Amino acid sequence: MDEDRKRDILDEIIELTSPPLRMASDITAQEYALRTGVTDTTAASRLNKLVEQGVLTSHRVYDKTIQHYVRVWRKVESNDDSSAGGM
Question: pTM of the predicted model, to two decimals?
Answer without folding.
Answer: 0.70
